[in-house]
Task: structure prediction
Amino acid sequence: MIGQAAILGGFAALAVSAVILLLTSRGRPGSTPAAYLTTVMHHPAGRWALLLLWMWVGWHFFVR
Result:
C-alpha cells in the first residue's frame, strides 16, 4: 500500500510540475511542450532518459 501511494504521489508531483512549467512559460516564444521535447530529443542522453521514462510508465500502467 505504501508503494502504491508513493507511485501515485510521484505521478501527482510530475503533473503539478508540468502544469506549473506550462503556466509560467505562457507568452514566451518557443516555450511549448513540443519545443521542450525537441530540445530533449537533440541529445542522446535525453533520448535514453525519455525511452526509460516511457518504459517505466508503460510498465506501471499497462503491464500491472
